[in-house]
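Notes to self, Probable peptidoglycan glycosyltransferase FtsW:
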Amino acid sequence: MSNLTFARTDTSILGRWWWTVDRWLLATVFLLVIVGMILLMAAGPAAADRIHADPFMFVRKQFFTMPFALALMLGVSMLSPLAVRKVGLIGFAITLLLLVVAPALGSEIKGSTRWLYIGGVSIQPSEFAKPCFAVVSGWVFSARHTSPGFPGYRIAVVLWLTLVGLLIIQPDLGQSMLVTAMWAAQFFLAGLHLFWVALLVAITLCGAVGAYFILPHVQKRVDSFLNPEGADTYQIQKAMQAFRDGGLFGRGPGEGTVKAALPDSHTDFIFAVAGEEFGMLVCLLVVGLFAFLVIRGMSRVMEENNLFVIIATGGLLVQFGTQAMVNMASSLHLMPTKGMTLPFISYGGSSIMGLGLGMGFILALTRKRWSSAIGETS
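result:
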């Protein structure tokens, strides 16, 4: 059917895109979106009922936002690596400005000022800053190798400290740790010396310890994880009950009961809804989709000889995979809760749009070069 749609010699924008984009990555993203919509239809009404809203409020908003996120992803995926760098740089500059003004002009929700209202729309700048930072830092790291004398490492450190500092001010320790993990992976891909590895590990440990003693909500989450008997672990207990009740095959679509008592069932703990209603087998399928996407992306980019493409894509994939792992591990009580969404599955407008931008970057950077694509046999 695809051969009837686009011939390999089709030089139109869509034709070139179709034969160069990784359709396995594209299909995996759409599968995650479908899974997310099904799970949100299961968890959304219960979450809306708790705040006395229209039962399908969250579902309707997600269905409205998702086409824009997918359109953004597909549009960005058609860019060249040079255009990706430009978009990433412009996006990073804009989101840095928004992060600067967020503490003063933003809305406080659960003790953090992470959201800005622009034109009546709530925006979380950090969700867009993450993929843009991955592209910009990949550019800076690669320039260090392609342009002798360019202070790429120093600039990368300054950019990282600036972004992490603005995130901690909000405060948003989860996002700052996610950005740090991504940036560290890029530093490694750029040829990080063992001395800097040790220094980075030491700084990260000191930052984690400092956050524990300085930020009360971080201390509360860590204490709840280490000593659940003496802390408020209501959501974790409910999530674990959901997994136990679901068993291997689940209780069936719409038959879950724990979601009615789980405040963040449509966001941070949507994986628990999957466990109760669809069982462990579907949970393993979701894990497999995330793992396949990261592994496929890594294997694809390792065929590249463009250092910017390797470092930027590697960082984006680490960011995507780590976010998914943290969300699922938190739901399973394998680590302290972080308040992080499950990519393309959890409810959240800024999260979905930011993920669409990041996945668009990945698809654009992992596209085959046109000359090699038309040289392949059908």
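- Confidence is low (pLDDT under 50) at residues 371-378.
- Residues 270-301 form the longest helix (32 residues).
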